[in-house]
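Continuing from the previous page...

OK, I double-checked the sequence for Cobalamin adenosyltransferase against my notes and this is the correct one:
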Amino acid sequence: MGNRLTQIATRTGDDGTTGLGDGRRVPKTHLRIAAMGDVDELNSQLGLLLCEPLPEAVRELLVVIQHELFNLGGELSMPGYSLLKIEAVSALDQALEVHNAALPRLKEFILPAGTRSAALAHVARTIARRAERAVVALAEGEEGVNAAPRQYLNRLSDLMFVLARVLNRANLDGLGGDDVYWKSERLARNEAEDS
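Thanks. Re-ran it with the corrected sequence; updated structure tokens here:
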């Protein structure tokens, strides 16, 4: 691995370039830098979510995910390296299965709303989707992107959707308690027929 940061303001990026883990310098507009930035933003959003009251199992899961996202970002910064293991994707699949099994079936699309923690999880979900798109674009444009980062971000977005529902039900801030359904015409008809 490259040198550890000992100085934050190096001024080497003043020319519009930034360094990769392999020593190359690329423009800050490079697809690889965009993907790394989206993954970093996602990790920061999870850090914000971790400031909220959370069920302990969710908290522990999110901390593991933050470490895996750091591995993912490191892999993106060093073309040709593999830091994110396929086992990390399997762990997300398992978490998805466990948390989704405890939830009632959806009647309709839900809004990204409810408790503050659920809303923050939805923001993380959308950032994960953006990061996934950035990794896919990078993979289409050049070599050096493994499958695991794309798969991890795809599963993580799904997991954040499920965790938002879990957090609404946990209702640890006392302001939520359930999914906030989209008021579609179809749902209104179904409810009218059920009455």
